[in-house]
Amino acid sequence: xxxxxxxxxxxxxxxxxxxxxxxxxxxxxxxxxxxxxxxxxxxxxxxxxxxxxxxxxxxxxxxxxxxxxxxxxxxxxxxxxxxxxxxxxxxxxxxxxxxxxxxxxxxxxxxxxxxxxxxxxxxxxxxxxxxxxxxxxxxxxxxxxxxxxxxxxxxxxxxxxxxxxxxxxxxxxxxxxxxxxxxxxxxxxxxxxxxxxxxxxxxxxxxxxxxxxxxxxxxxxxxxxxxxxxxxxxxxxxxxxxxxxxxxxxxxxxxxxxxxxxxxxxxxxxxxxxxx
Length: 276
Description:
The protein has seven helices and 16 strands. The protein has helices at about 15-30, 40-50, 70-95, 140-145, 170-180, 225-235, 250-255; strands spanning about 5-10, 30-35, 55-60, 65, 100, 105-110, 115-120, 120-125, 130-135, 150-155, 155-160, 165, 185-190, 210, 240-245, 260-265. Helix 2 packs across helix 3 (about 70-95).
């Protein structure tokens, strides 16, 4: 039976309950899913409660990430664990056995010792950040949980080479999980409806394109969408879907043709469901 991976964004404005209800229904119907979640809004809220300033880093290439110093990794890890527990409990309420992996259990990473970022128009080097580049996924653990009827729920916190906790990008975690498990589908649900031709027009979604032509669409990506395209490229799945998390059944809507579908071979977007 093929596995599918869902990344649920952690930004403000996303209602996780309809997504989890929809996901649970598909799991109860016999599908195998791994869920990776974000923790951005929860980490920001917790930082504000503790009077910790939140800073974002923008790379010379336009990628954004959270500045995670020694204090912020504590806050980020706590927020990610809280979100993880909430998701696992909600899935349980919908009749799904969920295995929450809130700590640095499933993901390994190498700490970024020198991050280049743009500040005040100048390139600077950040050396005290606890962010990581993903180096591996504990596929044996994930397969064992799936085989036991458990749905893994993974927080974006990794174990570093010196056994430190590291902030890792949730979209890229989902991509590495999809690659490790030879997943059929990677679905990334966020607070945007897909890759937009016009960032100010939610109706301008690019419906479908082949993975081989991804470079031609990269110029449309703004902010976090850059990482989502990178995840789609590296996942190795037969199809990657970038779609919105709004609606009563957002996962069904994405699989039935909503959002942006990036496929290995072009085909008409009209999915009635997933088999296998």
